[in-house]
Design brief:
heterodimer, A: about 300 residues, alpha/beta, TIM Barrel, 2 domains, eight-stranded parallel β-sheet, three-stranded antiparallel β-sheet, 14 helices, B: about 70 residues, mainly alpha, about 55% helix, globular
Chain lengths: ~300, ~70
């Protein structure tokens, strides 16, 4: 079902910034929202108090809509949900499970719910649970991923649910947005390109590594645990490979991954930290403001869509 | 009903249906990831026209059968 996602979310451009733990903080979120997209606050690394503080900071910087992402597997999920309902944030996106048990609370607080769905069955489940739209996220994405590519997943989800579908994974320019639109997507979630936004507070080493990345530079770790994560290859991923080849336990792999994202994001240790990134990093080649990124994305998208020939 | 649920699970996981019992643990014994689990639940919901709530509480195949039976009534 095609429905203008801008109408649903009261935003100017159909561009949603992907939630990235430790990375999408109040500064990036407010910049994306102020530029007419939907900024999404990541909460996987903060508690409810930190979440409320960030929400207040976003509201001081913009009066436009924004979203909060909730990692449903997190032990903090209950308290974060309570906080976003009390704060009446306009939109939530959810990952790692079904938001079913929270839907009533969200609806009572007039919050739009956009769960991430990495398969058709999960998208259908989210529709039954009362989602307002689903984010069909292909495995080209950075961070925690599913198994299906965006190209294969999006049209199948579009056919399976009677909801607007937001495409995610492998989109970093107007061509990717146009391609996803052709697959039936109503909106586009973009993560990696916003890492290099000038307003993004991630360590400069992380930004430089994204800008330098080539098409073949990402890999996945943790597949043996059932929770694969897409990252840029470095010393850390080689250690993961070695452990996984030697059939290491989930505990050993967890221990290696603990604190690794923060190491890369805040300390700038891009060799021993987890440099989460999508496969499309090879296309990201310069720092720009969030506004410049969004305007460039949309202009390119509009030109392609308006000039399609067969 | 158990036989049909067992077939759905076997179909998705590649396991032999005869090896699946009411006591089989869905999460640890079937080598099913979260995508498989959601697919199985979706197929069972479609087959029996029920909605299975509280997925976190499901441990065994018997739990699934019980939920479907309760929802059917």
């Amino acid at each position: 079902m095609y429905l203008d996602i801008c109408d649903l979310l009261s935003i100017q451009y159909p561009i949603i910034q992907g939630a990235m733990a430790w990375i999408s903080d109040a500064g990036l979120v407010s910049a994306v929202s102020e530029a007419g997209g939907l900024g999404v606050l990541a909460t996987g690394h903060i508690d409810a108090e930190g979440c409320i503080k960030a929400i207040k900071e976003i509201r001081e910087r913009t009066n436009k809509p924004f979203a909060v992402n909730i990692m449903l597997l997190s032990q903090q999920a209950d308290s974060i949900v309570k906080a976003v309902c009390e704060q009446k944030v306009p939109v939530v996106t959810t990952g790692a499970g079904s938001p079913g048990k929270y839907i009533k609370m969200f609806k009572e607080s007039n919050i739009k719910v956009l769960p991430v769905a990495p398969s058709v069955a999960i998208a259908k489940r989210m529709e039954k649970d009362g989602a307002d739209a689903v984010i069909a996220e292909g495995c080209e994405s950075g961070g925690h991923i599913g198994k299906i590519t965006t190209m294969a997943l999006v049209p199948q989800v579009v056919d399976a649910v009677n909801l607007p579908v937001i495409a995610a994974g492998g989109i970093a320019d107007g061509r990717g947005m146009a391609a996803a639109r052709m697959l039936g997507a109503s909106g586009f979630q973009i993560g990696t390109r916003f890492i290099v936004a000038k307003e993004c507070s991630v360590h400069q080493n992380y930004k430089n590594r994204i800008i330098k990345a080539k098409d073949i530079d990402t890999t996945t770790t943790g597949a043996s645990t059932g929770h694969p994560v897409r990252v840029i290859k470095n010393k850390l991923t080689r250690k993961f490979d070695e452990l996984e080849k030697n059939n290491a336990s989930a505990e050993e792999l967890d221990a290696l991954g603990r604190g690794a994202l923060r190491k890369a994001v805040t300390d700038g240790d891009i060799e021993n930290g987890s440099v989460m990134s999508g496969q499309i990093a090879g296309l990201v080649n310069k720092e720009q403001t969030a506004e410049e990124i969004i305007k460039e994305l949309f202009e390119q998208y509009k030109n392609i869509i308006c000039n399609i020939k067969i | 009903m158990f036989d049909r649920i067992r077939e759905i699970i076997a179909d998705q996981t590649g396991k032999n249906a005869d090896d699946i019992t009411m006591e089989t643990n869905v999460k640890t014994e079937l080598e099913a990831d979260s995508l498989d689990i959601f697919q199985i639940i979706n197929d069972i919901e479609d087959e029996f026209d029920v909605k299975i709530e509280n997925l976190e509480a499901i441990q065994t195949v018997g739990d699934v059968v019980k939920i479907v039976e309760e929802n059917k009534n």
